[in-house]
């Protein structure tokens, strides 16, 4: 990333370091180009910037030399400096130039202040003002080519300062402003708004006499330098101070809440997501973070609430609803956190809504998946009664309300497929979490060529789920990362114990999934179990064929599948021609156990075999079909062969009648693309549910281990 800076000495920063640009003329040329970044700057304008009103005869040729030298200096940052008809253009966008970013932030802050959002205004204005490192175009501020822009930017900076002080006054920070305003009026003695803000800040801190003296000072300054009296607004303020007008009083003291749990571990891997969630809370009054159990929704919500604090003068409060199991207890839980008590003949909800009132408060409702309907109703009623309230929800399922913004929370980033070596593996967020947690209990631990493979395997087997990773590495001092990685064939039999600092349903990975599974209805449980036969992605049509029951036997499979997607138990990818679904590996392992226990393997495996036959038929009848392992038919075949094998193997292991178990592995060799008529082989699915062995056509390009 490259950053062009003109709010101070002119410089270019690339990869965190200033570039060497050459001498003063190169920086002068760059400054002239940056003032019109993205536009063609006429050669005559650049000549005037370099040599003023007396350019040498060879000015055009010398300009060409200077631009060539500057182009070479910028090449390392991959910045284009192009010649166009009659001039030159610097390939820098608005966000690359600090002056442009400042103007954008200053405008956003002014708009927020006008909209009655002082917290947001102060945040934007503070970020914009922080870009200033000194006078604009410092070394060229007095040059004719720069003077108009220097004056314009300086005026915008003073206006932004006035607006930021106004936001602070609205936030009740008058006491801490007095010293800053004293310096500002000394530097800008004719700036009436600064004087008015100083008078107001002094009055609000109980210093009425000093406020009146401040007004007298500005009156004398203006009379001496301009021969004028202060303007109407300043005179009206003076009169209000004399009569102690009520509108001068500070804003009603806001009872700022900070009912957020303090973190006991470092926050790893999701900091890039926090600005996005903060932006959602600015644009939407209800935001829901959804994701599978253990994905880190609660921690992300707490961190997002923390970084959003400037936007909420009334503060933030978290209500953990995990332990609320009885209907009708959501309102009492929220009221308890906000210290609201029921009063005689006054419903508790009314007292709660009255407590929040018009305050700009962020309410975090955590762990809501078992109370979706009730929490949705409570949130909607509060949002209607409290116009400045924002609600951030964490749930494995969205609330389903109009106006709700949903932010899925997946597992942490995994090492790229085929990644090898410490550097490549160590960049993944999930790996960084493992290293952070292991290092906390074993200070000598390092990610090395010896341990990197095992750490990557832990992350992949656990789908990057933060809670699963935390539980897995809890016993690292006893077992080591390689032993833990080797034990993850069954993630529910980890050789570790859960943390005593977590709730009961978060102490083991099985408890996490049990909680989600127990919230399903019978049809959803049945389909969830049967989806275990899919080793990879699958389509809705495949689910219908493999997992569907007889007509009229329960709700439609598509409807049940949509319910599992809503509850974050099945993920969906819409990037292809048709949606493809998949289960996290940990959820599939859990579903496999349930399927074997229920004895539902046989029908499911039979359906998988039928779909495999249908898939093969499609390949055979289409001589141009893509049957490579990466093609659509190849992928479907791979997943369905695995489905038959997996289901058959589990059925065989679950049988008690002495029948031979079904072989659990199929193999076909990989080849390139070829006509489907010659690209099929057969695989015996074995006896499933007492049926005779079935010959199933399989594309030979598919390899299943």
Automatic annotation (TrEMBL):
Enumerate the residue ranges of region (Disordered): 649-705
Q: Which domain of life is it from?
A: Bacteria
For this UniProt record, give its keywords in alphabetical order, as a comma-separated list: ATP-binding, DNA-binding, Nucleotide-binding
Q: Which SMART domains is this protein grouped with?
A: BTAD, Trans_reg_C
Checking Pfam families in the record gives: BTAD, HTH_77
Q: Which Gene3D superfamilies match?
A: Tetratricopeptide repeat domain, Winged helix-like DNA-binding domain superfamily/Winged helix DNA-binding domain
Q: Is the keyword ATP-binding in the record?
A: yes
One example GO MF annotation: ATP binding
Keyword match RNA-binding: no
The residues forming a coiled coil are: none
Q: According to the UniProt record, which residues make up the DNA-binding region?
A: 1-92
Query: Low complexity compositional bias: what residue ranges?
Result: 676-685
All copies of the OmpR/PhoB-type domain together span: 1-92
* Matches recorded under CDD domains: BTAD
Q: Which family does it belong to?
A: Belongs to the AfsR/DnrI/RedD regulatory family.
Protein name per UniProt: ATP-binding protein
From which source organism is this entry?
Answer: Saccharothrix xinjiangensis
Q: What is the lineage of its organism?
A: Bacteria, Bacillati, Actinomycetota, Actinomycetes, Pseudonocardiales
């Amino acid at each position: 990333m490259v950053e062009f800076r003109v709010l101070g000495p002119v410089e270019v920063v690339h990869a965190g370091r200033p570039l060497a640009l050459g001498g003063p003329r190169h920086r002068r040329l760059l400054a002239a180009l940056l003032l019109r970044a993205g536009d063609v700057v006429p050669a005559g304008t650049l000549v005037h910037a370099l040599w003023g009103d007396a350019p040498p005869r060879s000015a055009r040729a010398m300009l060409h030399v200077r631009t060539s030298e500057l182009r070479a200096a910028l090449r390392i940052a991959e910045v284009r400096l192009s010649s166009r008809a009659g001039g030159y253009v610097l390939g820098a966008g608005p966000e690359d130039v600090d002056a442009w970013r400042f103007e954008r932030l200053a405008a956003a802050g002014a708009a927020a202040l006008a909209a009655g959002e002082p917290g947001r205004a102060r945040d934007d204005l503070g970020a914009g003002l922080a870009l200033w490192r000194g006078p604009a175009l410092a070394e060229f501020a007095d040059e004719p080519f720069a003077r108009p822009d220097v004056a314009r930017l300086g005026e915008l900076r003073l206006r932004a300062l006035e607006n930021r002080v106004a936001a602070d006054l609205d936030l009740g920070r008058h006491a801490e402003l007095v010293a800053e305003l004293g310096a500002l009026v000394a530097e800008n003695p004719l700036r009436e708004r600064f004087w008015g803000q100083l008078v107001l800040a002094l009055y609000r801190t109980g210093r009425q006499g000093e406020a009146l003296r401040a007004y007298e000072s500005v009156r004398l300054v203006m009379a001496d330098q301009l021969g004028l009296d202060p303007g109407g607004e300043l005179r009206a303020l003076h009169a209000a101070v004399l009569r102690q007008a009520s509108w001068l009083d500070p804003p009603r003291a806001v009872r700022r809440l900070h009912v957020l749990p303090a973190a006991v571990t470092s926050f790893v891997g999701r900091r890039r997501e926090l600005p996005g969630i903060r932006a959602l809370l600015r644009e939407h009054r209800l935001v829901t973070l959804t994701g599978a159990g253990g994905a880190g929704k609660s921690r992300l919500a707490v961190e997002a609430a923390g970084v959003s604090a400037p936007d909420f003068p009334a503060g933030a409060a978290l209500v953990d609803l995990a332990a609320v199991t009885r209907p009708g207890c959501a309102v009492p839980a929220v009221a308890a956190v906000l210290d609201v008590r029921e009063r005689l003949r006054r419903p508790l909800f009314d007292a709660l809504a009255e407590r929040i009132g018009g305050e700009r408060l962020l309410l975090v409702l955590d762990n809501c998946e078992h109370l979706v309907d009730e929490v949705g109703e409570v949130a909607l009623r509060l949002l209607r009664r409290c116009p400045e309230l924002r609600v951030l929800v964490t749930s494995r399922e969205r609330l389903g309300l109009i106006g709700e913004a949903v932010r899925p929370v997946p597992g942490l980033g995994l090492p790229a497929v085929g990644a090898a070596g410490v550097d490549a593996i160590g960049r993944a967020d999930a790996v960084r979490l493992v290293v952070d947690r292991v290092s906390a209990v074993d200070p000598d631990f390092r990610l090395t060529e010896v341990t990197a493979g095992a750490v990557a395997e832990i992350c992949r087997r656990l789908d990057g789920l933060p809670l699963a990773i935390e539980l897995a590495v809890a016993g690292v001092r006893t077992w080591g990362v390689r032993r833990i990685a080797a034990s993850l064939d069954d993630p529910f039999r980890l050789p570790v114990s859960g943390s005593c600092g977590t709730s009961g349903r978060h102490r083991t990975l099985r408890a996490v999934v049990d909680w989600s599974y127990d919230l399903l209805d019978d049809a959803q449980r049945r389909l969830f179990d049967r989806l275990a036969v899919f080793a990879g992605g699958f389509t809705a049509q495949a689910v219908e064929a493999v997992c569907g029951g007889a007509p009229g036997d329960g709700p439609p499979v598509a409807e049940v599948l949509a319910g599992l997607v809503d509850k974050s138990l099945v993920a969906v990818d819409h990037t292809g021609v048709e949606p493809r679904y998949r289960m996290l590996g940990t959820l599939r392992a859990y579903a496999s156990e349930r399927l074997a226990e229920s004895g539902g393997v046989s029908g499911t495996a039979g359906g998988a075999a039928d779909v495999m036959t249908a898939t093969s038929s499609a390949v055979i009848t289409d001589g141009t079909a893509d049957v490579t392992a990466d093609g659509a038919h190849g992928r479907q075949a791979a997943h369905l062969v695995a489905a038959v094998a997996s289901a058959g193997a589990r059925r065989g292991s679950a049988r008690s009648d002495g029948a031979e178990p079904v072989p659990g592995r199929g193999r076909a060799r990989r080849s390139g693309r070829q006509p489907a008529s010659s690209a099929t082989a057969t695989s015996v699915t074995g006896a499933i549910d007492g049926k005779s062995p079935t010959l199933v056509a399989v594309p030979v390009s598919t390899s299943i281990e």
